[in-house]
Write a structure and sequence with these properties.
32% of the residues lie in helices and 28% in strands. By secondary structure, it is of the alpha+beta class.
Length: 176
Amino acid sequence: MKRNSIIAVMLSLLTLAMAGLASHCSVKSKGLLFKAPTQTSLASDQSEIVPYKVARKLRLFKKGNPLFVVISVEPAHFVREEMTQLARQLNRDFSEEPRLLVEIMDDERIAEHVPPAGEYYEWYMSAKRGEYHLDREKGLEYVQFSTKRGRPWNELTLNLGETVQRKIRRKRGRRH
């Protein structure tokens, strides 16, 4: 009986950490860092920003792993122009990150409180509308999204071009 109680408490704590309910603090658990920050977009030109809210951040403490971020965006912003602008904002707002993976949700409550695994997986995925990928070392940047809820979240892919490093490497390779 005592062992079952301990397991139940441990599972509850893990669920709270995964859901980001540890209100605006960090929780470390076996090499994982869970955060529920209050960050919003830091873009400088307020007339061209796509408002988003960071629901949680997760980083595996292994060199080379990307920072995993879950954000929420209002459903009206899931159009080509605004998703391109959002990708530019994320690139600027996380300029210190060499690798970044952002899941884009259309429901703030689900983004903040529902874990992306276990029995709530389907609920989480119902609100997932896209992903943003950035790898500065490989020179890749793209955003995938759906224009309507219920469609596949990778319905549209916008390749935002290669970073300068990758273009230079390709030019050098052509000379030989």
